[in-house]
Amino acid sequence: MTAALSILCALSIQYLVETRNPLAKQLLAAVVALAVILSFLPQRVYGKMPERAECPEAYAFVRSFPGNHVLSEDVSAVVLSGKPVLVSNPFVATQLGNSLAWSQGSLDQLAAREYFDLILLAGRAPGRWSPAFLQATAGHYEVVREFQCLSVGAALVPRR
Q: Are 154 and 77 within 8 A, CB to CB?
């Protein structure tokens, strides 16, 4: 949506400039000013995002973790650690649920069987993970590390 709006705005300004409309310069100045304000406003209002403070530490934890079966809501944590990507979009996979005919089973079933060596959760919001997946992780996994990182909030390992 943002990209489409930006393209439409650029085309409109281009048209005004080509037709030598006197409003072209004012509109261009207003768009540039708005872009600058919207770029710096979140930093001014919220300051430095503390949620990202421990991200390098979280990624280092994943990289040094001995297991290779890592499920992460943020796939970049898995990719940057050099581990194989088992699921590229966990949100979509949990929303599809058991409609997928995977040979190993659904994410819920894999979590219940403690297939994953490490699960990285950004949060436990009901919209991100299915209730069955959250129940399986609660019953079979325990939190070993928590991070103040937007994309990696908790690291869970099997209880075994």
A: no
**Residue-number span of the structural domain to which 23 is assigned:** 2-47
Does residue 41 sit in the same domain as residue 76? no
pTM (predicted TM-score) = 0.64
Q: Which stretches of the chain score pLDDT less than 70?
A: 1-2, 42-53, 90-103, 123-128
Tokens of 73: 């809501």
Residue 159 and residue 111: Cα distance in Å, rounded?
Answer: 11
Phi, psi of 86 (to 5 degrees): -85, -40
pLDDT digits (tens, 9 = 90+) for 40-81: 776 665 555 545 567 888 889 999 999 899 988 878 888 888
What total of structural domains would you count in the chain? 2
> In terms of domains, do 68 and 91 share one?
yes
